[in-house]
Amino acid sequence: MIRHPEISGNRILTRCIYCNKTFKGKSGLDDHIVKRHPDFIASVSRKIHECTQCTYKTTYGRCIREHLMIKHPEISVIVFLVDVSTVIRRLKVNKDWMIT
Ligand SMILES: [Zn+2]
Ligand SMILES: [Zn+2]
Q1: Is 50 left (phi over 0), alpha (psi -120 to 50) or beta?
Q2: Which of 73, 90, 92, 100 is most buried as measured by Cβ atoms within 10 A of its Cβ?
Q3: What are the TM regions of this chain, as residue ranges (predicted)?
Q4: Predicted structure pTM score
């Protein structure tokens, strides 16, 4: 069984094997691979959210919602209706994913 470094301690960084960029967790790395190394998207194990209106992809559900609101406001109304409380709460803490 493979022991994932992010489980053994939150100080251990996860490194991108394609460009050596480091991330605090596997989720950040996965999102980076989706965005920067789409050729290797098959190596990402977590669920990938794809925009139905353009080529945007992310591993974060909150990111696809924010992307929809910013880039495709006309369809994001539907997302708002479904998930309004979650979206508003997360908009206030959206600084962490904007760093990468
Ligand atoms: Zn990389
Ligand atoms: Zn889009």
Answers
A1: beta
A2: 90
A3: none
A4: 0.60
